[in-house]
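Supplementary notes (optional reading)

For those who missed the lab, this is the record we used. Protein: Glycosyl transferase family 2. Length: 168 residues.
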Amino acid sequence: MISVLIETQNSDELLARTLSGLVGGAVEGLLSDVIIIDHGSVDQTHRVADQAGCIFLQDQPLIDGFRRARSDWFLFLEPGARLLDGWIEPVAVHVERMQGPACFTRSHTHRRPFLSRVFSPGNPLADGLLISKRQSMALFNPGKKAVDLARGLAMKRLRAEIIPAALK
């Protein structure tokens, strides 16, 4: 099982889109919990999280999300990112084999142009991050966010597609 962690601020509509794509994983028993770490939202983010049955942490550091997570694996997503059909099995296989960090493959229609990929590093969390709790704790530095955790990691690319938040 995995715990989903999403850091957010004023992204109620984007969060709702992301959470809707996780329903299949919850139904299949792959997701144990979804933790929303909110950094001062003034919109309806807390209501979206509450309606979806998420654990909502207001103005708390990322490490508190780690501590509340019930699983040995974390899936970090950005609000607005959407996992496409077929993501459950590749994630389950990856976790079962205890492989290292992984990210999703961008859907064919949402890939960055070649030169942009080569000359601009982009957001390291845009394609999600699947990582063990143990490795997350080892890499974590106080005051950092999930995007900092993903920066510089060598990740396996899963055969499961994502539409990144920035491209929605």
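If you only remember one thing from this example: The two ends are 28 Å apart (CA to CA).
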